[in-house]
Design brief:
- It contains 14 helices and no strands.
- The chain is an all-alpha fold.
- It has one domain: Voltage-dependent anion channel (Glycosyltransferase, Alpha/alpha barrel).
- The chain is globular and about 65 Å long.
- The two termini are 34 Å apart.
- It comes from Gordonia mangrovi.
Length: 378
């Protein structure tokens, strides 16, 4: 009897004890694993725009960026194995009306790590390598993001008709990537030759901004109607309500970062265009910021209510990280544009919330990975 109990205890302590075989790690790997890369990378990127900087903050951001890069490589390689060894399962997930939405996490993971490579990785990699790597990741992430923003809605339109109440906050996942491209692409404008190359990239980023914003606003309207008429999603999916903040924060970030770079493009007689884009970024940021406050409060209330009734851990918990991180970058960019210390201070407060959320979710994820339960179908 004692030997049996010891054997059971040893099995529980064994790595991947919940799996019948280690190969099961790849069998049910889903695209929402890339949300861990997004959520980790935004912690690093947001640290670099805080109103107060120090060598300690830079060291912390560098360590987190390296972790995000390693996660991108590891999860990316595992995802390739998943498609090669379990193609039937992979195709089934890609066709699933809920899981397919999380394919938007793939380009956003690339874009997030790419942005960190440019802003954080330069001292380690050198300017040339950092810029080239960032550019490759931006082009790859943008291409995949645009395809996802069109492919996933098209697949939903041509699938069996669903009721309006089926709308979920996760529907925003495939339409947000072009907005991330717009905000991260702003940093690449200064590295292009003056004239037409800079203008082309800036104009392209604004086009991406418009694509994501309009698709996102239409989607958010449907999601809001669903929440009002259909109620909060089941507890496992409840954290995805935070994804709505991703559109808010990322669009504020993009509007103001692109406006700042527009002064490198519109010079001389065309300088008023840059001034107009700056005004647009400020007004948009203030207006959308008000909407963000409402959505933050709503998401918090839903989360607290769900937690009281039972909020089991799932990979959807990573929804607590990236959207809050975009609000940090958005408030900091807006604060710089209007030279407002309180707005930038709000960004710093949100960063504390972000780090706390990331530490909690990362710890729970590591525990679930060790046991292996997270690799099994939900």
């Amino acid at each position: 009897m004692t030997a049996t109990l010891e054997g059971t205890a040893g099995a529980r302590r064994r790595l991947l004890a919940d799996l019948d075989h280690p190969r099961q790690v790849f069998e049910h790997l889903t695209p929402n694993w890339f949300a861990a890369v997004m959520g980790t990378g935004i912690v690093a990127n947001a640290a670099m725009v805080l109103p107060v900087q120090s060598p300690l903050i830079t060291a912390f951001a560098t360590a987190i960026w390296l972790l995000a890069a390693l996660l991108l490589i590891g999860i990316g390689a595992a995802f390739v194995v998943h498609w090669r060894r379990h193609s039937a399962t992979a195709r089934r997930y890609a066709a699933d009306p809920v899981m397919s939405q999380f394919y938007g996490a793939v380009p956003m993971a690339l874009l997030t790590v790419g942005a960190g490579t440019l802003h954080i990785g330069e001292p380690m990699l050198g300017e040339t390598v950092a810029l080239a790597t960032s550019a490759v990741l931006w082009v790859s992430g943008t291409t995949i993001g645009v395809v996802t923003a069109i492919w996933v809605p098209f697949a939903m339109m041509t699938a069996a008709r669903q009721s309006e109440n089926a709308a979920l906050p996760a529907w925003l996942m495939p339409v947000v990537p072009p907005m991330v491209s717009a905000s991260t692409g702003a940093a690449l404008v200064a590295h292009l030759p003056a004239g037409q190359p800079r203008l082309a990239l800036l104009a392209g980023c604004y086009a991406l901004f418009g694509m994501s914003l309009l698709l996102g606003l239409m989607t958010m309207t449907v999601i809001y109607a669903r929440l009002i008429h259909g109620g909060v999603p089941e507890s496992r999916l409840a954290p995805t309500i935070w994804i709505t903040l991703g559109m808010v924060g990322q669009s504020i970030t993009a509007a103001n970062l692109l406006a700042a770079e527009s002064h490198l493009v519109f010079l001389g007689e065309r300088a008023p265009i840059a001034g107009g884009l700056t005004i647009f970024g400020i007004v948009y940021g203030l207006v959308m910021g008000g909407f963000g406050v409402a959505m933050f409060a709503l998401a918090t209330a839903v989360t607290v209510r769900t937690a009281r009734r039972g909020l089991p851990f799932a990979l959807t918990w990573w929804s607590f990280t990236f959207p809050v991180g975009t609000c940090v970058t958005g408030m900091c960019a807006l604060g710089v544009a209007v030279d407002s210390a309180p707005i930038r201070g709000l960004g710093a407060v949100l960063y504390v919330v972000l780090v706390a959320a990331w530490a909690t979710v990362a710890t729970r994820t590591v525990g679930a990975v060790v046991r292996g339960r997270v690799f099994l179908p939900a």
